[in-house]
């Protein structure tokens, strides 16, 4: 492609409303333009990158035996009513009426459509399992679209759905997709982790993993072990628990005693007034879980993880009790509440269960207990992991490594749905004995457009993008320094033809611009290999620059083809 | 692909609601499924055909120098207000509100978006011309969706837009796309004509062509010359006009005289009562054209072409006058109106201008004139082509051939928009002299999904589809007659591997079904080459069937690769 003809405008300055570097660089390098909040046009360079990513996804989906189809964006409201999601999905679901006043949703996801399709097409175990996928435009009316393609309202997604006869089959389909996702993101040049995640509101039994590209601007926090391959979403991450100290091992422990603590309501106040470690305090909060009250006790230096509490209780809704309700249930206002003598069930975090000399609220205004020894003083009926892990916790899997907390951009998600949709929509089949069974489903998503942002967040320097070869819009940037020099242009055009003939994607900067302008644009666009044709061309020499490593060398122009091929082979 | 694993269900019977053959076959062969009226899912076989067509389009667009981008479906209402189309587009435009009550349209086309984009990106003649295209999903809330993919509400379209500095440039861009379209449709195996069309409501100066796939179920009528390459939409088609007979060449013509014609109001009544040819009657109708009255006179056996009348007058709106208004303007009710003595302008069709002895209304209840000789009796101020052509008319271009009328499916459309959108949206540039000029635009559409319907309408027999090799979902259908025969299956799997290794797309029917079922499905699906592995396989022979020609022959299995290659090369 001749750059003089390319539909591309670069910008020197970052637009004021672009907060994150990937958004800034995508605008500056002419990859995308905003049409409305969270709604973007992909310019030719951006479209090319998108196509590279789509191509990698298709190859790996086909390799994994998934079959491509294409479902519509316009989905009848009736289908969403059948699954029960029409009323609960909220304002993210874009709804519209057709000219006959029939209601439709613009698909944010396609569980309903695919389930109704497979229900109608397949009725025998003989035609299962099957995994179907599409690369298709999704619509979600985000409350706050931002960060360019990271949180947009119209975006490209790869969504796949598997259908199996039993849990064992679902397990195979799930790990098959899991492996395909690892290959896809690796081929895109991403630094990512597959992290264990909570199944969340979408429901369903069984496992789920999120694929997270590590990046400081990521909206999710993930815990990653320094030694083993354990990685989990913060909602789900578990730390290793120290060994249990049996009650009789601490025969020296003092007896729990109530003492006056006027105006000491917060952990900080207790720490300062009593000169104790926050880890020695038992923090107790009252929650309403599906209309029933429960207490949760964690160490004073920990945060309660509500997802873990919900999962332990098996409830749909969990909310902290308002102060009046808490006082009614415990006899004290928050700040003086503690686990001793409560009538509501008490969930005790493992770390609390292992304390031997704690301070806890006495459920009486301005009083606390000291020398609380839970194994002795409490009924340890509900002990579990109810806290958020923190940086430096021991890994629960290998028990050797430390957990580090990173930020991640969610680029993919695999999920065992089980029978959630198939049961509601009646996707059944006849088993070999002629009995009706419900299909087991999995769903698997990749944020195709979001991958562009993630790649750039991980691959840039102060001058611009550093495209991995596999997803670069072009592989080679040919830059004749002076288009007025007949010799330089001739050399450049010869190299251009040779590279094209060998199947390389080449952009040639044939614009009559100053070298400084060309180099700045080239740095910004970040094609992997740059070949500069300047004065040395008359001696048959050109400069080859590997953009990422900023490795420059003067080479014989006859060696260009070989060197470019070597580079690409080493990269991809 | 193993057919046992393919997500495909064929149907023996045509669904009741599928009126046309392409719709029936697409459902029966498992290419598409309906989700809602005019909203379809493409199953794997259909998706593959779509991708073949997309690939051909991309290759030819790139060859023509067009650059691909991708614009959003969600378009802010403000843009449509800027172009003036938001209020006039009607209920076909799907409108919606986001959560902040901002109005959006779901793009039925992208003139507004592309014009605003190019306005913002390009401001100098140096960066023109440019042609941009996308393959993207469009939404049109058709009043009556039908015929499967032929008239649907969500569909895939390739739309391109060119931007030039002057009309000469636009002309080049236009014909460049015109040639690309010819290549695209030819490669898809379609029998089509590029027909001259009227610019219609979309407006704009200059030319437009519609690309029509000939098919009896087509919604448009086109006139095609039997001798030359003239082809035009019926709205636009012109017949050759017989030589003019000067007034003095018919000195024998009788004088126009009024005569009593009680209760003779229609052409039929006049023909029967007076025993004359309808071609000897002058039919005169009164129209209201942008609030002004005009009369239009054509031969009694002709229909008035309102598009031609509108274009002649240069008006936006044309409607036939109601009887009361017509009587007020002429002094007579419809049935007694004629061109003599009218005070409103009279548009006279060329055929009428050449008559020498006509019968026409006298603008007096129950009276007509006979011996009307327009060249003598009328002021021939507005003579032109105001009628629809009919089958058998002489061609206006070569004057030798006859015009035949065919039905056509519109598969593409090229259109010179001129400055219609660029002027309204302010897409200007600086010319070499530093002056501001308005860009000249063209727009170019292809109904990508509609091509599937057109191909099938033209390529089928009573048993199923006859895919042209270039767009077939798979090229070769391998059919081992009995999967229980180890020898047949081994031969089939060997051929499968060999064909795949050579890059052919192969579907192998490895299902344990009766041969009759397999052949019926194979006929329905219509892959170009079928290879049947039956008992003769033990003698090293297989049957090769060219589906389209129903050409069968027993060949040595070692000759299969060579024969398939020969076939494909002869087809594509």
TrEMBL record, chains A, B:
A Pfam family assignment: HGTP_anticodon
Signal peptide limits: none
Cited HAMAP family: Pro_tRNA_synth_type1
A GO cellular component entry from the record: cytosol
Domain notes: Consists of three domains: the N-terminal catalytic domain, the editing domain and the C-terminal anticodon-binding domain.
Assembly and interaction partners: Homodimer.
Gene designation per UniProt: proS
Role description: Catalyzes the attachment of proline to tRNA(Pro) in a two-step reaction: proline is first activated by ATP to form Pro-AMP and then transferred to the acceptor end of tRNA(Pro). As ProRS can inadvertently accommodate and process non-cognate amino acids such as alanine and cysteine, to avoid such errors it has two additional distinct editing activities against alanine. One activity is designated as 'pretransfer' editing and involves the tRNA(Pro)-independent hydrolysis of activated Ala-AMP.
Assigned keywords, A-Z: Aminoacyl-tRNA synthetase, ATP-binding, Cytoplasm, Ligase, Nucleotide-binding, Protein biosynthesis
UniProt enzyme class: ligase
InterPro entries in the record: aa-tRNA-synt_IIb, aa-tRNA-synth_II, aa-tRNA-synth_II/BPL/LPL, Anticodon-bd, Anticodon-bd_dom_sf, Pro-tRNA-ligase_IIa, Pro-tRNA-synth_IIa_bac-type, Pro-tRNA-Synthase_IIa_type1
Catalytic activities: tRNA(Pro) + L-proline + ATP = L-prolyl-tRNA(Pro) + AMP + diphosphate
Protein name as annotated: Proline--tRNA ligase
Compartments it resides in: Cytoplasm
Domain Aminoacyl-transfer RNA synthetases class-II family profile span(s) in chain numbering: 38-468
Entry's Gene Ontology molecular function annotations: aminoacyl-tRNA deacylase activity; ATP binding; catalytic activity, acting on a protein; proline-tRNA ligase activity; transferase activity
One record GO biological process: prolyl-tRNA aminoacylation
